Amino acid sequence: MSDFTWKGTKASTKYIVVSEYPPIVRPEQRLESVPIPGRSGEVYLSQDETTYNSYTKDCICYIADPTKLAAAVAWLTGSGDVIFDNESTYAYEARIAYQIPFEKIMRGRPHQRFVVPFKVQPLKKAATTESNITVTVSGTVVNNIGHVPSRPLIKVVGTGDVVLTVGATVTNITGISTSITLDTDAGMALDNTLLVNASAQISGSWPVLAVGNNAVSWTGTVTSVVITPRWRYL
């Protein structure tokens, strides 16, 4: 049986069967271009090769047991991770933002097809929870195995003022009591309780793990740097 997993639950447990998976596509790069009078084609004003646009993955399904329709309607809402069985090693961060045409099924015709429109973030992540990387020796090399630069979660355990270098990025951190956590995707830092915004203690660049090898080093008193890498894939 063809299946997908939505927010940790298999569609088959809701009597939903996949009749056609959405195609596997490379996301569209976010580019800005303008046509130039008197010449063919366009000129690109922005060519950031690391940013991509969200898009919709339409999954065509049917209800194996029409009496379970109400439970399926209640389940196929909101946001979460979706994993398609034809691409089971990856998960997409998704939202079901559009109406699902269940009215065709509600006319009493069993096995009527319907489309689930998953609005997905452009970059995939591993379907299984990735392991943290703990660095205890300054200069240790971390290899980004993903397809694009990673914006990791980094916990710096130490005290006082620290200069953290990750690959080509340099981050200045002041006044660490016991630890500080840098959420580089959100552009925010939290204190050791994870409750207080500590972004005022940060200056310089937020750490980024480029594709390939990145040396992780520091000056100051640091016991360890714990990295949740957040590898992302096209």
Secondary-structure element sequence?
Answer: EEEEEEHEEHEEEEEEEEEE
The overall average pLDDT, rounded, is 90
What is the CATH domain class of the largest domain?
Answer: Mainly Beta
Q: Could you tell me how far the N terminus lies from the C terminus, measured between alpha carbons in angstroms?
A: 27 Å
The parts where pLDDT drops under 50 for at least 5 residues are none
DSSP strand count: 18
Shape: globular
- Major sheet: 8 strands, antiparallel
CATH architecture descriptor name of the largest domain: Beta Barrel
Strand content: over 45%
Give me the number of helical elements.
2
CATH topology of the largest domain: Elongation Factor Tu (Ef-tu), domain 3
Structural class: mainly beta
What is the C-alpha radius of gyration, as a whole number of Å?
23 Å
Roughly how much helix do the residues carry, as a percent range? Answer: under 10%
Domain unit count: 2
Per-chain topology:
Elements: E1 4-6, E2 9-10, E3 16-20, E4 32-35, E5 42-46, E6 55-63, H1 69-75, E7 79-84, E8 90-96, H2 103-106, E9 113-120, E10 125-126, E11 133-135, E12 140-144, E13 153-166, E14 169-176, E15 179-183, E16 188-190, E17 202-204, E18 212-228
Antiparallel strand pairs: 1-2, 1-7, 3-6, 4-5, 6-9, 7-8, 8-9, 8-10, 11-18, 12-18, 13-14, 13-15, 13-18, 14-17, 15-16
Highlighted features:
single chain, 234 residues, mainly beta, Elongation Factor Tu (Ef-tu), domain 3, Jelly Rolls, 2 domains, 8-stranded antiparallel β-sheet, 2 helices, globular
Description:
There is one protein chain. The protein has two helices and 18 strands. It is mainly β and 234 residues long. It folds into two domains: 4-126, Beta Barrel (Elongation Factor Tu (Ef-tu), domain 3); 133-228, Jelly Rolls (Sandwich). The strands form three sheets. Strands 1, 2, 3, 6, 7, 8, 9 and 10 form an eight-stranded antiparallel sheet that branches. Strand 4 (32-35) and strand 5 (42-46) form a beta hairpin. The longest helix is centred in the first third of the chain and has 7 residues, at 69-75. The radius of gyration is 23 Å and the shape is globular. The mean pLDDT is 90.
